[in-house]
Structure to design on (378 residues):
């Protein structure tokens, strides 16, 4: 039986109190394996404790500690390392103990032949490799199962949250619409009720739009429509719109594109870029109680970078990598703190991919976050 070159990675420990046997074994198999030799069980244990041994081969009859005792020790301390016992015809009891107590892969009667021992070694290593691969697959399945269960849990919580978010504006619409039926309410109250109904309707429409948007993105039912347009005009439009949104808050929204050519025309999908930046600004407002938000842009050669900076609560370091994922723990925590469906960053990320953009974030707890959209223009 011919062993492949990949077998060279294996470390084999051979223990025998006869130096001549050790020399013959090492000379025979050193081209196929990394051979470690020991003249006693005590020396063999030291090698076991200091090297990553894949297979132990031990002679049975040795002073101080027998081969079975050594293999039993190795089984208890290193159960994944396979074991082979070398013994004579008369050592039946030793063979039984090796099988029952040391769980040897096989015993080999002396004197051994190179061909038969090489086949047994190859079989032992392949069995060990299969067992290790089985363990890796079991661990991978366990992780996948846990991930799927966590995803299902987060999706279930999302559905409950969705129900709550829809009912809130619906209750506002139904409740205040019924109050409008009262002929005795004065003009100012009527105007106030209508305003609440309008706001509730807008909130409900945003929820529906988010659900439709993420559904289309997930199912790839989207078309990218590139066009040329003035980036400054788009940013000014967003600045004006979101200034209205925060007019009654303690926030300030700045637009900073002084270094950017006011007549600069870019080519991409304007609607998707608008959606990305709207969601980033919405996210910044949601997590910034006071201070300021800055919308800015720079051009570096063929690259345009658009930034949304805030002085908000920041993002924990362990959530940075998952903040853009749908149904992530980070997304769930954010939703619990601020309300809403928590799909904004997922929508922004998916749209960024569609227009060949890259969305990144830097953040520090208590200091705020900076989201950066990078667009390549050629």
């Amino acid at each position: 039986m011919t062993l492949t070159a990949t077998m060279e990675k294996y470390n084999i420990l051979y223990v025998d109190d006869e130096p001549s046997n050790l020399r013959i074994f090492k000379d025979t198999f050193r081209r196929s394996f990394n051979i470690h030799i020991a003249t006693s069980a005590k020396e063999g244990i030291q090698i076991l404790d200091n090297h990553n041994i894949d297979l132990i081969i031990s002679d049975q009859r040795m002073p101080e500690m027998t081969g079975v005792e050594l293999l039993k020790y190795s089984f208890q301390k290193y159960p994944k390392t396979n074991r082979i016992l070398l013994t004579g015809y008369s050592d039946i009891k030793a063979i039984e103990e090796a099988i029952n107590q040391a769980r040897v892969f096989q015993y080999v009667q002396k004197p051994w032949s190179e061909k038969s021992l090489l086949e047994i070694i190859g079989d032992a290593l392949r069995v060990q490799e299969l067992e290790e691969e089985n363990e890796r697959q079991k661990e991978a399945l366990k992780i996948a199962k846990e991930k799927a269960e966590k995803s299902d849990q987060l999706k279930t919580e999302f559905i409950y949250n969705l129900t709550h978010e829809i009912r809130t504006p619906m209750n506002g619409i139904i409740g205040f619409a019924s109050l409008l039926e009262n002929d005795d309410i004065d003009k100012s109250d009527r105007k106030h009720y209508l305003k609440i109904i309008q706001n509730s309707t807008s909130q409900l429409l945003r929820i529906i739009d988010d659900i439709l948007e993420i559904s289309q993105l997930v199912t790839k039912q989207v078309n990218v429509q590139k066009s040329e347009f003035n980036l400054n005009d788009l940013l000014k439009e967003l600045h004006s719109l979101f200034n209205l949104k925060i007019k009654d808050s303690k926030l300030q929204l700045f637009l900073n594109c002084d270094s950017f050519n006011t007549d600069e025309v870019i080519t991409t999908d304007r609607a998707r870029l608008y959606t990305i930046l709207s969601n980033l600004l919405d996210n910044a407002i949601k997590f910034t109680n006071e201070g300021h938000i800055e919308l800015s842009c720079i051009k570096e050669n063929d690259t345009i970078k658009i930034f949304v900076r805030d002085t908000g609560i920041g993002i924990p370091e362990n959530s940075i990598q998952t903040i853009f994922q749908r149904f992530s723990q980070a997304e769930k925590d954010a939703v619990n703190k601020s309300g809403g469906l928590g799909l904004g960053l997922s929508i922004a990320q998916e749209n960024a991919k569609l227009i060949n953009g890259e969305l990144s974030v830097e953040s520090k707890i208590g200091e705020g976050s900076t989201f950066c959209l990078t667009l390549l223009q050629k």
Observations:
- The chain has three domains: 5-112, 148-218, 227-376.
